[in-house]
Each structure stands twice: as structure tokens, then as C-alpha cells.
Design brief:
The protein is built from 5 helices and 75 strands. The chain is mostly beta strands and about 950 residues long. Strand 18 and strand 19 form a beta hairpin. The protein is globular, with a radius of gyration of 33 Å.
Length: about 950
Amino acid sequence: MNPIRSLALLAFFVVPLAAGAEESQFFVFRKHWDVIELAPDGHFYRNYAGRFSTGTWKRTGDDLDITIDSLWPDSLKLRFDGDALVGEEEHRYVRRETLPNLKFPWPVSSPVTLVALDEADGKPITDFSYSYDLENAQGKYWPPVSRRIAVKSATGEFTLDAPESCEISIRLSSPDLVGGHGSYKTLHLKKDTPGRRIEIRVKKGVIVHGIAVEAGSGKPVVGAIVSPEIFTPPLMSPDPEHSELSGPDGQFTIHGADPELGIRAQHPDYEESGAAIDKAKKANSVYEVRIEFTAGVKITGTVVDAAGKPVAGVHVDDGAGKEADTGKDGTFVLKSPRKWWNNGNSYYLKFEKDGYNEVTLHPADIDPKGVSVVLEECLSVEGKVLDDAGAPVAGFRVSAGLGTEPEGYACSTKEFKPAGGAFALTLKGYEEFEKTGKVWIGVSAPGFAPWNAVVDAWKGKKSVEVRLVKGVAVRGTVTLPKGHGRVVARLVPSRTMEREWGGSGEPTARQQLGTREIELSDGDFVIAGVTVGRYALSVFGERVAPILLTLSVPDSGLDAGALVVHGTGSVIGKVFKTPKEGGQPWAFADGEIEFAGAGGRSREDNPALKPVRFKTDENGAFRVDGIPAGLVAVGVRFNLTADMIGGHFRFARVVEGKDTEIRYFEPKGAWELTVKLPIGDGSKDQRASGTGASAERKVENITTRKPMFSFILQPQGDGTGSWPETDFIDPKDTGQVVIPDVSPGKYRLKVVDWLGSRGFWEGVVFDGTIDVGENRTVTVPLGAGSITGQATPDGDIDLMVHVMAVNKKTGEIRHARCDRQGNFCARYLQDAEFVVYAHDHKAGWCRIGEFSPKNKTLDIGAVEMAPGATISGSIELPPASSEPLSVRASDAQGFEIQQLERDGAGAGKYTLGSLWPGKWTVKLLEGEKVIGQAVVEVKGTETVTCDLKRDAK
């Protein structure tokens, strides 16, 4: 270890102690990088993602109570669990010493000198503190400091130990420096940085002196929190590090204020106030301001329980900073709340207390007599948990929450180890969930399948008797690649279609209860204790490509078959800035690899799909090994503004044991693919008729704008490949689009016309195979005819009526969507005869007729939609599927209708509406593969049942 670094770490992280004194304890919660230090003298220090705070701590048994010192009082309640601290939401803070990757990741390092300077005059900042992290393509080091590192230097200089080149993220703080977004600096240390010396230019604030008074009376306001405004993307907020309280005479002095942003002032008895700085008087470099507070309305009220007894300790919150608690008599006074709900027309009043259901009110006006609120006690459930023989289960877990599919955070969960299998559990009170009138209860125990039920809500307590059974098994065999690490199979129940309160995307309580996980090795595997139902099976681990399957488990159990797990490859490449940004190599760019081909884009909470992050070196190059074989999306992030982050994406196919090369904005253009899109003979008139631009009937968001196309590339064969993700692009006057950075190889290219929304991808005008090599130009000829009209439904347009024009000779279909007025334009039509249909699942259908646009724009006028027939039924789900399931129906001419409910097929049912008379072939598809079909004839507006069976295999 570098000796300079050793001394630096000692100074940064170790509290100086007398001989024999106890050392501080450090705990880290990695998800949000929350570092807690418990000093032996009872002081508490915290670094929460760069926000520092102090306070005191006290331990009673395993319970830890922390009080945070602040003008905005706060507290933490944690408990000790071995070497970890567990938070109120089960967040686990582990001891810093137990984290394996906190070591300095670079074997060779040397000091870099940083110099803090005033950005206005270039003079040194002599007294400040800082926090930092280092990162390059080889690793990241974020010192888990719970206190900032202090610097006193006449020259503003200090040193860090760093590798040869890296990105340094640093934040400087002092009473005189402006806080917020601008105080975070990103520095690039490169191999050729002169003298390994970097200047940090920061903004010094100004001193503001003022007085806080009541408007009108001029009476001093004591105890107002006065703060400089700072930019904390995406909004402005008060700076807690520079906040001060107004004194007995209402006076205050603020340091480090930004004169362009002003002062914000808050007091519990008054409406929020503030003052501008840049227009204030200035004397001896100090700005003088006057803040006037206005007293708003007072909302009074009483909170009682269902029996009419006062409830003390109820927290009342207006959602905008005003708070109160009820007293022993159940009364409260909320001073100066403001209307912000319903566009500022209503108040927001939330009443909550542990053990009671929340109540939220949105009154437009307040009764002078006050607000009366009744809090119902939370529901509670009690009972016994028995096995299938009627014997008590010794250890089990009970979870319950309001709703049919509650999120985990909305449930009460507790472990029980009673001798007689008895339990009692009080539910959390969430008003929004209670409106369903249902309660979900779940029980799990080792060696048993999970038990759960949805019951009607009740008052007070409810008794249940739970009988646990062994359940069934999911079996199979697995073949793992050479050199793999730990690999697991995880079985998670599918979420039901019902999602109260919006849903978070995290596994619900029922899913968590039923999740089963085992470690795999080559050969047979068994996942026991499974109930009948629909599941997601993921196989993932170290140095393997994940497998994701959807399983339907019957009451006899399921054989998932033979699973072959593939290994990993590498992604290499180089990132340049865009041509508009100069085209130079993008040093230390932040990248992320997502597994786009395995059940959708990656998610942090899904270990099988967790994204892999990387950083380019100072020349924009990168190499990431151990990437699972398959389709991935590789993104490089950039800031649109301080609070908006975008990304340049490339898709890639990773092949086991091989390097997949990716380029971003290659300056020489060697990987560019040009797609020419000539319309008709290329003349101005045929371009106008082919796009529908010459039509008198305009279609909102389609013919009222320039044409746009999206380009979808899919590699063919089994080799590597990489290509960009494109949005819809305007070919402009050149009639062509240049797609950057397409690696050599054979691809399937789909060109999709803009149909008014990114949600519509059926507007394919070309679908063919191309060979990208020395020839990097593709021509996609488009027809010069278009058909416009208006398909007006009987009622409101639901999902933009779908119009289809089919070429009678070739069967090729051009798709269109109606705008809100029902206008449509089917465009890029060849010189041929077309049959035109309009369809909407709810609005109806219409066979508009047969037309020949003949390289012109043909307006066929308004047509009426007519009711149609409905085909619906159940689906025999496959035991295991790796692609999404869907249902489509096609008539004798090849017109194809897709199911309306995208999640319906996965739930074992489907509905197809507004079908015209004739015979329809209804197909069940797994991805693009037909796995079952049936023929149904409809005659009018009837509903026909057609249950889809899988093809026998």
C-alpha cells in the first residue's frame, strides 16, 4: 500500500482516541450509500449520499435510538442484528469492515494536488471540508466517510491518492460556499495532466443580514428558519447547511447565500415567505433584507376513535410543511396551511397514527367549527397455523395487508415461533387500499407450500385457521457452462392483473411469500413447496447467461424439462462525443449494459436482469468481461440538464467466449448505414401524394408533420453484432437516413412509419434481410399513393381507430391510425388496387371498400363504424414459455386483429372485439411461434366462445 495513502486513510476515517479508548463503529447501507458512525462519546455522524448530518445515539438492548441535530428535527430507530443494523423498513446497514470491495482498487497510485479557488477572483479558498470518490474503467472507490474531511490551507491546496488517470467527483463545503448542485464538481485526471495538479473553482456566497417581522404590525418573528435558496434538481430548496434561526429581535445573519436565488423563510405559525437578495441594499459587503410573514388560516379540529373517544398523538400534516399533533383531548391546531391540492383549490389534510387507518381529506373550505375526524383502529387477524394432520406448526411467517395484491411495504409481516401455532397480527392502515374492501393474508413456513387468501374486510379482529400442506414440486435438469460460479434458480409467483394504488413494480407481498430459491449444479434439480399457479422461473448467477421462463404449475407438479445455461462473452468498444459536440473521445463516460433479450429491460431488483455498469477510460475505450450471452442494450449516459439524464443506446448480440465490438459516433463513419427512402419517381408531387401531405384532409400528428421512420435491426445467424437504437427519424429533403455504428453482418431490417405515437409499431413499410459489409446503402422504395378518410365511431374514439389497406395482388398491408377527429391517411401505397377496412375493439368495424389511388391522394370521405362480433375464451397455457403469449385472429383475406388486453393471454384468457362476419382463424402465439389455433365463424354481433388448446407435442 502506498504510504501516503495509508496516512491519509488514517486521518480521514479514524477518530483520534486515547490509549485504550473504544473506537467508533461504522455501518454502511449500500443501496443508497448511507454511512452511519456511532462514536464512543455518544455522538452520531451520517453521510447519506453526500448529505451530512450529526446527532446523538443511545442503545437499549438491541434497540438503537438516534436523534439528528437539525433545525428540522429528525430521528432514526434501528435495531442490532448481529453485525448489522436493521432500519424501520428492513434496510440493513452492515459493518464497514465486512464489505469486501471497499479496498483501494488500484495497486499503483500516487498523489494528485487539488486547489480550491474562488471562481470570481481566482483567490484560494483557505478553510473548507470535502467528500469525494474516484472512478475509472478499472474500478470505483467511494471512501465511506461519515464526516467530511477538513482542510485549512493558505493556498487552498490538498492532496488525494489516485490512480494514473480517473474521474474525481468531489464536493466542497464551508460557511462561505454556495451549496446545492453547483457545489458538486467532476474533475478528470489524465496521464498527461500537468504536474498532476487540478484546480477546483467554486462559487462563494454572500452574507445576508435581515429581520423577520409580521406583515402589518412589524412585530419581530422569533424562531423562523431562514435559509439560502439552492438548486437541488429538479427544484429549488432551502439549504439546511446554511440555515439560521431568527433571534429574539427577529434578526438573523446568513452566510453562503447565492444572490441570484434569494432567501426562503419558514415558521410553523405563518405562511412561507422569503426575500430577494440581488435588489437588496448592501453595506460593507453585507446585504440587508426584510422578511415579512403573513399569518394564514387556522384549521382546528378533533380526532376521535370509532367509539367517540379522543385520540391523542395523531399526526396532522398538510403535505406542504405544516404539521401538528393532537393533544390528550384529541384536538389540534394547524396554523397557516396553504391550498395546493387540486391545482390550489383544496387543502390536503392527512391524519395518521400507528394502530389506526390513515385518513386524508381535501376540503375546499374549512368549517369555522373545526374539522371532525374519526380514526378506525387497524384491522387485526389472529388464529392458528396447523399442518395437514392438524398439528401446530412450530415456526412460521404471517403477512397481511389491505387489498387483493398489496405491495410488501403496505403489509404487516411478523415471524412467529409459538408452541401451539398461535399468532396475532395488526395490519397497517392505508386508506387507499381499504377502498377495495378486501384483505390479503399469507402464511409461509419451512417445508410447506405458502398459504394465502383474499377475504372481505372486517371490523376489529378476525380469527382464521390456516392449514399448511407440503405442496408440489417443480423439477428439471440443468446443464451449466464451464467456469461458472454460484448459480441459483428462483421461482416467483406471477403478479395478478389487479394492482391497487398504481403498484411499484417491486414484488408484491404475495410474490415475496411464494418465492422459492435453490442453488444449482449440473444435473437434476427440485424446487419443493410450490402451490398451483403461474410463475416466473429465473436461472442466474456468476459467469452465466440468465434464463427466464414463465411456468404454469398444475396440481400434479411440473417437469420444466432440460435447461441449458450458456456462458458469457465480452463487450468492447470506444465512445466518441457526437459530431455536434466535437467528435473527440469521451473520457470517463458512464455506461450501463442491460439484458434486453431476457424478459425485457433490466431492473435493479431482479438479480437475473441486474444491469452492469462500466466507465470508459480517458480515451473513451472500454472492455466489460463476463456479460451473459444474448441480446443486450448498452447505453452511455449524458445530462440533458442538471435533472434530466438521457442515453445513447446500442443494441448488441453477445456470443459466448467472443468479443462483441460496439462503437459510438465513429468519426470516420466507417460503420454508417444509409437507408434511402425514395417515394414514387422521387418528384415533389409524388412525395406529397405518397406522404399524404397534399391531401386537404389533415390527420393530426401524422400528415401535419414531416414523415418519420424508425429502423429496427435484428442480427441473423449466430455471430456477434451491434447496432444503434433509433427513435423515429425525419429523412428530410435528402430522402435518406444515416444510421451510425452498425457493425458488419447480416440483419433483418424493419422500417416503421410513424402512425401518431411511439406506441404503434405496426406501420411496417419494409421487412427484409440486408447484408451490411462493404455495401452500406439500402434502398426502400415507397409508393406514391395515399388514401384518406374519416372513420367515425358511434361513441368516443377509444384507442385511435385502426385502418388497414391491403394490396389485392400481393397481400401487403399498409396500416394507419385515426386521429381524435377520426381522420386517417394510409400512405406509401403502390399503383395497385387496395381493400380498406377500419377496426376498433370497442367502436366497431367497417369494410370501407376497394380503391386504386394511382400515385395520387384519394379522399374517400366519412364512413360509419358498425358493431361486430366478439370472440373470447380461455387459453391452455404452456407448461413453460420463454416468450410473451398473445392471441391474434385473421380473416380469409389475411386481415389480422391483435388482442386488446396485452396481459390477457398470460392470465389464461383473451377477448377479440368488433369482428366482421366470416371465418376467423384464432391463433395462440409464443413470441412469433404459433402454438395453438382454431377456426371460428361469426355472423353478426354475437359473442362466441373459443377456448384455445395447445398443439399436441
